[in-house]
Write a structure and sequence with these properties.
The protein is of the alpha+beta class and 455 residues long. 36% of the residues lie in helices and 25% in strands. Bound molecules: ligand MV4.
């Protein structure tokens, strides 16, 4: 087992990783930017070293500085968390060169899944259902038109280097294709330095369902059931839950088997997530694979009663996975992301000093956070302040519990997404469980929040 792990991250996930390391009797090294001097990951790690200025590229993305700290402190592994360098193949390679174990998949796995066209080709070969579309990248408007007419409109153009909606264009007829093709390529080139695009049938108002997977160094793989991440705004997830209210037992079995097929096909090593789009008729299609621990991993931990960070560390150390896991079907978990953003102003970032804080507590309530009273939220990083994860025996009870926990959460000094979540927990469509990724286009949450404030 590793003796010392360097955590190449900040915020709540750095704390989350430190906690499991302590429970496994592994020493921890924090790295931090000058903006994070007073952060809890700095305080709770066994050692902490400043690696640069506030901007990510000067600190948390500074590979050379991080490797220098790993060498200096004699760390034998690096945990990248999520974001920053978590899916950077070059960084994983660099760790290998310095003989430091990167806790995650190999650089080859990251490259194979980072490029969406190559990921899709791999999945088609493995027999995982994919959305009908072009075979590989599209070379011209004429080619796009030909394929669009074969599969039928509406279609979607996507950047191979994309994710998060950038470089995506929906096209509903021949007349709209040329403009969309040029826009998608330009946007992809400008955002990713790679303007390759591909084309797919557009699935209307899909459900975003992802399967948590784990594969070990010996080719064994398992899945840990699904998370429903359909509550999103502009490709930012706001609420995740497990099990999905849309997934029945036969669908769970089929999606789980497909996810395991995907993992085994590439001999994936580590924990990961296979994302699927599911249409209203419960057809499911591979969308992409995330080769990291995700923000929403606690939802799976709560329903599966399983420490995913510990599993990552065990897999990296060469431990075989604990065998086939299956969803026990007893508990429901929901996570609400509390961001320093103003839901009444298009979720504009709201950095600043937290002047007062009370976090919710009690039976079935977990709060993963790095904030404290007096903490200043820096403007340089993502705006996640805390995650509330509630667990109960049924979805209905879980929503009631979440509502209670949200009302108990006091954060003063910065605007937060708490009021948004309160009105969402009261929303009929959400409560019914019969919603898809279009929910927030239909829900006038601004009026609902103003209504709430007036009482
Ligand atoms: C799609 C789609 C419909 N059809 N692909 C959005 C982000 C990127 N990862 C893929 N996305 C989508 N791809 C086809 N062929 C709809 C979306 C999509 C979406 C997907 C998941 C969750 C929320 C979404 C919101 C808008 C569009």
């Amino acid at each position: 087992m590793f003796k010392k792990i360097l955590i190449a991250n900040r915020g709540e996930i750095a704390l989350r990783i430190i906690r499991t390391c302590k429970e496994m009797a592994i020493q921890t090294v924090a790295v931090y930017s000058t903006a994070d001097r007073d952060s809890l990951h700095v305080r709770f790690a066994d050692e902490a070293i400043c690696i640069g200025g506030p901007r990510s590229k000067d600190s948390y993305l500074n590979m050379q500085a991080i490797m220098a700290v790993a060498e200096l402190t004699n760390a034998d592994a690096v945990h990248p968390g999520y974001g920053f360098l978590a899916e950077n193949a070059e960084f994983a390679e660099l760790c290998g060169k310095y003989n430091i174990k990167f806790i995650g998949p190999t650089p080859a796995h990251m490259r194979a899944m980072g490029d969406k066209i190559s990921a899709k080709e791999t999945m088609i070969k493995a027999g995982v259902p994919c959305i009908p579309g072009s075979e590989g990248l599209i070379g011209s408007v004429a080619e796009a038109k030909k394929i669009a007419n074969q599969i039928g409109y509406p279609v979607i153009l996507k950047a191979t280097a994309g994710g998060g909606g950038k470089g995506m264009r929906i096209v509903r007829n021949d007349a709209g294709l040329e403009n969309a093709y040029n826009m998608a390529r330009n946007e992809a080139g400008a955002s990713f330095g790679n303007d390759a695009v591909y084309l797919e049938k557009f699935i209307e108002e899909p459900h975003h369902i992802e399967i948590q997977v784990a594969g070990d160094q010996y080719g064994e793989a398992t899945h840990l059931s699904e998370r429903d991440c359909s509550v999103q705004r502009r490709h930012q997830k706001l609420v995740e839950e497990a099990p999905s209210p849309f997934v029945d037992e036969p669908l769970r079995k089929k999606m789980g088997a497909a996810a395991i097929k995907a993992v085994k096909a590439i001999k994936y090593e580590g924990v990961g997530t296979v994302e699927f789009l599911v249409d209203k008729d419960k057809n499911f299609y591979f969308m992409e694979m995330n080769t990291r621990i995700q923000v929403e991993h606690p939802v799976t931990e709560e329903v599966m009663d399983f420490d995913l960070i510990k599993e990552q560390i065990l897999i990296a150390a060469g431990t075989p996975i604990s065998g086939v896991l299956y969803y026990p079907g007893r508990m429901h978990a929901i996570e609400c992301r509390i961001n320093a953003e103003d839901p009444l102003n298009n979720f504009a970032p709201s950095p600043g000093k937290i002047t007062a804080l009370h976090t919710p507590k009690g039976y079935g309530v977990r709060v993963d956070t790095h904030i404290y009273a007096g903490y200043t939220v820096p403007p340089y990083y993502d705006s996640l302040l805390a995650k509330i994860i509630c667990r109960a025996k049924s979805r209905e009870e879980c929503i009631v519990k979440m509502h209670r926990a949200l009302e108990e959460f006091i954060i003063e000094g910065v605007k937060t997404t708490i009021p948004f979540h309160i009105v969402l927990m009261d929303n009929e469509e959400f409560r019914s469980g019969k919603f898809d990724t279009g929910l927030l286009d239909r829900f006038d949450y601004v009026s609902a929040i103003k209504e709430l404030r007036s009482h």
